[in-house]
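Input record (one chain):
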Amino acid sequence: MAGVFRKSLLSSAKLIGRQLVASNAACASRTSLPVTLSSPSLRNFSMLNPTRALAGAGLRSNTCGCCGLHTEVDKELSTFLEKEIKFEESTSKSKAGLPKIPGFEVSADESQVTLIRTGEVSVKVTFNVNGSADSDQMPQIGDSPPTDEDVQMISKPPFTVELDKGSGEVLAFQCAFSPAEDMEQESGEQGTEAIIDQFEIQEVSIHQGDWKDTVYTLPAETMDGNLYDLLMDMLDERGINDEFINNLVEFSTAYEHGKYLGFLKNLKSFVEK
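The corresponding structure, as predicted from the sequence alone:
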C-alpha cells in the first residue's frame, strides 16, 4: 500500500512538473527576447514562482522595433546618466589638459599611471587610481552644514617608489597617504611648527628585476625609528617631497575624474544599445 502511495505522489509530481515546464515554454514563446528582472525582490521571488516573475517583469518593459527590449529602469538610468555627465563635465578640472608633474615623464595604461625621472639615480613612481577617490571636506566656519561646494572628491592613491642606481638592484618603497585624523592628532601633539609628512612608508624591499612574492619585505611597523626617518630623508633628496606629493594629488584627482566621466559615458552608451 505504501508503495502505491509513493508512486501516486511521484506521478502527481511529474504531472505538475510537466505543466510548469509547458507554462514557462508558453511564456517564452510569447516573449522572444530575454526578460530583465528589475529589482532584488522580483529576482528572489522568481525562484519560487518563475511564471509569475516573468509576468511581473513584463509589466515594466516594452519593445521597440529598433533595438529590442527596453525597461523602465533603462530609461531612468539613461536620464540620470545624462544629467550626471553634464554636471561632471561642468566641474571637470582637466578641460585644458592634465596637470604637469615637473621633472617626471608621465605614461598611463587605463587606471595605472607611471612617472619616471631619469638621472644618476632613476626614480620610478607607479600608482593606480581605482578606488582612490574620496571626499575631502573643506574647513567649516560656524555651525552651518557643509554644502556640495565644500565637499570635493580627491584622489590619493597608494604609490610605489623605486630607486635604481643602474646596478640591477632596485630599492622599492610602498607608500600611502597619511590619514587626515592622524595628521591632525600629530600636529596637535607636536605644535603648529611641527613638520607633518603627507605620506608614510608602509614597507621597503630590495630586489633584482621585477618584484616577486618571494622578496623579503620590511614593514614600517617593525622598523627602527631612526632608520624610518633616514629613509624618508632619502626619498626627500630624490624629489619625493611635499611639492611632488601636491602635484601627484592634483594630477591623480584630474586623471581619476576623467576616467570616471568616461565610465559614465560608456555606461550610458551600453544602456541605450
